[in-house]
């Protein structure tokens, strides 16, 4: 179950995270439209965001057109959103080089450190100039962005993107980002300590950073750590009560790791009364959520449960899984 997801999703940072205002025919919607048409860049962006979330192709095209108007008027936010629209082909033809150029223009205007780190990551992973990518990452780190430290850590850990491999330095860079409170980095660092990425395994540090991330609200970290406490894997002493509590917390956040950890608990009877049917169901749901095929041990637990379930029970469980899996949100793309 050890997986480290490199966080390309980090590019969807603050400027893309605010909720959009619905566009309607009411007075507020009409006023927003008039302000946008009058050249108000903030209104253009707000209108663009609302249209983008409507889902209709024509609205997405209109959304990108409003972002372009704002960008052409010198808006950093407009340029940032236009860059992503071009890179994704949202409402326009996909054009990665043009998208990257608009992102550069945005960052040059805003000097936003997290956006610098996001640009660095995009340049590094889309065939852009790797030297430039690392320059943006360093600038982000110099401004105190944990994402900047994370990108530099990735580069030093892998030996890619124009920087020599240096696991010791990578550990320091990841740790700096984690200490700054970046939850995604805390999750990644915690998992890395259960691998030999830094030349050694360190379960104590791994538990520390996963617990920090779980305390900060990461359902993924809670589920992963819960699994370790339930199973005693990776040198972590079994703590059934703590493991089940973490797994349930992760399930409340609908994290795949939470479903899996609770499924294992039910199948093995650790921390809860044995319930093979519920265990089989939870593990199967986790498999449906696992876009990266990381649950290597799932088959063994499923087989253990299935051996004591009747064909009729299994048929009912499969139907339940099929019905509930159809309601799950789409899994994010793998790294």
Automatic annotation (TrEMBL):
<dbReference type="InterPro" id="IPR011990">
    <property type="entry name" value="TPR-like_helical_dom_sf"/>
</dbReference>
<keyword id="KW-0732">Signal</keyword>
<feature type="signal peptide">
    <location>
        <begin position="1"/>
        <end position="22"/>
    </location>
</feature>
<dbReference type="InterPro" id="IPR006597">
    <property type="entry name" value="Sel1-like"/>
</dbReference>
<protein>
    <recommendedName>
        <fullName>Sel1 repeat family protein</fullName>
    </recommendedName>
</protein>
<dbReference type="Pfam" id="PF08238">
    <property type="entry name" value="Sel1"/>
</dbReference>
<dbReference type="InterPro" id="IPR050767">
    <property type="entry name" value="Sel1_AlgK"/>
</dbReference>
């Amino acid at each position: 179950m050890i997986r480290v997801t490199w966080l390309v999703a980090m590019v969807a940072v603050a400027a893309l995270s605010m909720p959009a205002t619905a566009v309607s025919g009411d007075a507020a919607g009409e006023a927003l439209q008039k302000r946008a048409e009058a050249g108000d860049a903030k209104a253009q962006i707000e209108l663009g965001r609302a249209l983008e979330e409507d889902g209709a192709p024509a609205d997405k095209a209109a959304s990108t057109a409003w972002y372009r108007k704002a960008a052409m008027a010198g808006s950093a936010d407009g340029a940032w959103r236009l860059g992503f629209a071009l890179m994704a082909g949202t409402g326009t033809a996909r054009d990665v080089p043009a998208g990257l150029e608009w992102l550069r223009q945005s960052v040059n205007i805003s000097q936003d450190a997290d956006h610098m780190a996001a640009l660095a990551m995009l340049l590094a992973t889309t065939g852009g100039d790797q030297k430039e990518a690392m320059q943006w990452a360093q600038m982000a780190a110099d401004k105190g962005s944990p994402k900047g430290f994370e990108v530099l850590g990735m580069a030093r850990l892998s030996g890619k993107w124009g920087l020599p491999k240096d696991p010791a330095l990578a550990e320091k860079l990841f740790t700096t980002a984690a200490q700054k409170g970046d939850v995604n980095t805390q999750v990644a660092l915690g998992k890395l300590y259960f691998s030999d990425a830094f030349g050694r395994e360190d379960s104590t540090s791994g538990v520390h950073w996963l617990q920090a991330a779980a305390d900060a609200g990461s359902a993924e970290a809670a589920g992963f750590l819960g699994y370790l406490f339930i199973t005693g894997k990776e040198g972590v002493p079994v703590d059934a009560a703590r493991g089940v509590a973490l797994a349930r917390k992760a399930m409340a956040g609908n994290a795949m790791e939470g479903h899996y950890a609770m499924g294992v608990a039910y199948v093995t009877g650790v921390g809860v009364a044995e319930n093979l049917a519920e265990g089989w169901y939870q593990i199967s749901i986790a498999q449906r959520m696992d876009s990266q095929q990381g649950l290597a041990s799932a088959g063994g637990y499923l087989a253990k449960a299935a051996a004591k379930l009747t064909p009729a029970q299994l048929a009912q469980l499969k139907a339940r899984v099929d019905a509930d899996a159809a309601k799950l949100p789409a899994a994010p793309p793998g790294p």
